[in-house]
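Reopening: Tetratricopeptide repeat protein still failing for me.
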Amino acid sequence: MSSQAFAPEFQGKFRSMSVNTNYVQALAEAREEVARAMEEGDDLALAQAKLLESEACRRVGEIAEANVAWRASYRAARKADAPGSMAWALWNGGTLARQCGQMTASLRWLELARDMATKAGDVVALGYSVAGIAETLRIRGDYEKARELHVELLAEARKRGECRHTVWALEGLAQLDRNAGDLDAAWERFAEAAQIAEEGGDERGLAWALRGMADVLSLRGEHDEALHLLSRGEQICRRMDLSSALAYNRKMRGNILFRACWYGEAVRTYQEAQKMFRAINEPRGAALAELGLIKSRDKLGRPRPATERALLALLDTLDSQELRHTRKMVQDALDDLLELVA
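Support: Ran it again with your exact input. Result attached.
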């Protein structure tokens, strides 16, 4: 049985803040506390406030500000000799790097966070750091190691009855199942994650689970119900100012419209998603939206040579990035195209 969700990254005076707090509001409160802590020379409070500032900035898409804030949080925590707070700052830095497509940097910060959390004896920071490593490996395409870590994390989360961690681990495993083509297993895990998140009051986790469920329904041909679930998830994302989650929700809407053969609407939706991703400097999402855009335009009658050139150009942009799975998806689309024209 899982407990009510809480946000352990909300530390110090922010501990009582709801896990579902709107991030624009959270950012305002964090900056107010930053000013107070700096005036009073309270390094630990400054580290905690800068952590929330960074997390809120990341969530609402203020990437440059988030990058400055997590580093300031780490420096203040080190000055306060608070290894637990240092671990949380490193976790936040690793999460931000993953969002920006910097997988090597993400793993480096998250592994340092794991080691610092171990030193501090902070089991929650340790769990979040390992979960971040698992998610980064999954996005990079290292599925075997990612699955191993997600399974370990799920067992630990269930034992401790932690709502958010259980939901996170279930969603990671569900995504791996979906990528492997096991839609029944993916549905079961996404549905369980949604139920636990809803019962535990974890709206963020619920929004991601609804997106996963919508994906599976769409792959089964149930497009209307999939769009209904996405709309529910979108409401959560907008209410909490979850910029990245909202962009991925929009990109999934494009996927569903494409599968339903509504190509014109898919084009418009992918364009919206791409704009959202570029606004928050999220290259993986932008590349996936571009891929959907290229495929939709091809279905609308774009000349095949133009489609091939667009796919090759997208492939080139991914050469210097650490997004193996994304690059494979583009390569697969190119291979399928070449088979059609052969």
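The longest helix spans residues 23-40. If you still see a failure, please send the error message rather than a screenshot.
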